[in-house]
Amino acid sequence: MDHEQVVIKRGPRSGLPIIVAVHSTALGPAIGGCRIKEYPHWRNGLDDALRLSAAMTSKSALAGLRHGGGKTVVALSAGTRWDRRETLLDVGDVIAGLGGAYATGPDVGTGPDDMVTIAERTPYVFCRPAEAGGSGDSSGHTAQGVVAALRALVGDLSSKSFAVLGLGRVGSEVWKMLTDAGATVIASDVDDRKKRGTWVSPQECLTADVDVLIPAALGGLLTPETVPALRCRAIAGPANNQLDAPATADLLHARGIRWAPDAIVSAGGIIYATAVELRHETPDRAAEQVRGIGATLTSVVREAEAAGTTPAEAARRHVERVLASANLSGRVPAAGSLPLP
Length: 341
Ligand code: PHE
Prior knowledge:
By secondary structure, this protein is of the alpha/beta class. The protein is 40% helix and 15% strand. Helix 4 (139-154) crosses helix 11, helix 9 packs antiparallel against helix 10 and helix 11 packs across helix 12 (311-328). Residues 31-33, 105-107, 126-127, 138, 240, 266, 269-270, 273 line the site of phenylalanine.
């Protein structure tokens, strides 16, 4: 078992499966968003929580944060009616029961207003709206981090082409920033109502002949089946867990496609929220730290080249080193030690 603890509880108010996975607190209290989404079965939601919380440990470590990884998943079943407020209060109670070992934030299916509801039951919540004492919506900051990664990968954006796959809260911000920067952008989403600019089908977007493919929807899109059809030169986007399996990074490498690890590219939200809410940095300083994602990516890509390996492997080694040094120096903070804003 890789995870420190996993709580699965049927919410007493909502009747829904509430899953909180705490992967690691070796570097500090675990952080990771609350995902509310349909799954074929709640066990699929559990799988997602296990994978996503482990990815958060890597994300925090690569971002240089003194935090570990966790995730909340509320598994909905197709077509069932559910009560948002009851569900969020149930989530808040489960998080409260962890005594500070884990704090949540927004993710797929939740936003800053939902964090206010969760906060009725526990203080361990990021990204409430500013009027409610939080740092607000993290999507714009996550998008800034993606753009910093893109600049590190390809330099000047205006002469390059991009395919944005998924126009949710983060993807649509990235789309706008690229368009404003004068880049050539095509986009797609499973939801046609999000249509804007040059619009293609999800399949065309995935296989577009562009400088960079930007996965901005759900994970698992890079597989042994999809990789042979790709025509991009590089891939960098905010979607979590883009590879179906670690070995797919080698397939991308063999095809000469540079894959920027999503754990590096997607860290803007947690960097900004922890900077403002826990470290009491100014918004400008926090934004500067988000732009640091560019330098992190460059150093991991260089490390990979020097070691003759993939950026994915270089990132994995980096995380391993950071976690090992935390264990060695005995810097294992007790659960319940998350400083409150
Ligand atoms: N969805 C965010 C992520 O995956 C979660 C988050 C954002 C958690 C901000 C805390 C603060 O990184």
